[in-house]
Amino acid sequence: MKTLRILVADDHDLMRRGVRTLLEAHPGWEVCAEAATGRAAVTKAEELKPDVVILDISMPDLNGLEAARRIRSASPNSEILILSVHYSDQLIRELLEAGVRGYIIKSDSDRDLIIAVETLANHKPFFTPRATEVILGNLQMGGGVRAQMPTSPRERLTSREREIVQLLAEGKSSKEVASSLCISVKTAETHRANIMRKLQLHTVTELVRYAVRNQIIEA
Predict the structure, then answer these.
(1) Please, what is the angle between helix 159-169 and helix 174-181, to 10°?
(2) Which among 65, 74, 103, 124 could bridge 82 via Cys, Cβ 3.0 to 4.6 Å?
């Protein structure tokens, strides 16, 4: 029987260890790597091409939603399971649009996690009951995830701009953003100005509030 290879990404060491212990107790499963940031998760997914990637939403450097988008692009055969304390209808919609097919809450049972991984390993979706309601509701509205949904300011941002929003909201300066993304300070400042204009924000404090409200960072 082929070994199921799983990547676990969460910024809390205890959470990663607990999930790893639970998963590796299952015959034929192995955690091939761990990651503490979204960016590290993307790098390891690109390198290892795991069967299943378990992602937390709120991670430093690059949040789980943005990491999921990049992992789906770099490793299309890797199924993604979001394991998070967060929940919102908008978040579920964005995850679906990113190609995520699994979502459970950290307060769910150990058994739910095992079932979710088993289901995704067979390339079938697994969502909590509330998430399923959102999916079915949108299908009834018009047959698609985005049916009749207004475009939010966040959706008008590019992938790079969303990445910079997180870094700025985490307290990084334009110089630190530039260093992290290997771009010039001038380019980082241009991105920052465009972001503030698109979101109609005027201060970093407002940007932080926006990032918390949209679950890009934790409060």
Answers:
(1) 130
(2) 103
Reported as a pLDDT band with limits 50, 70 and 90, residue 176 is very high
DSSP string, the chain: -PPEEEEEE-S-HHHHHHHHHHHHTSTTEEEEEEESSHHHHHHHHHHH--SEEEE-SS-SSS-HHHHHHHHHHH-TT-EEEEEES---HHHHHHHHHTT--EEEETTS-HHHHHHHHHHHHTT--EE-HHHHHHHHHHHHHHSSTTTTPPPPHHHHS-HHHHHHHHHHHTT--HHHHHHHHT--HHHHHHHHHHHHHHHT--SHHHHHHHHHHTTSS--
Model confidence at 147, pLDDT cuts 50, 70, 90, reads: very low
Provide the Cα torsion 70, 79, 146, 87; round to 10°.
-90
* Confidence band of 134 (pLDDT split at 50, 70, 90): low
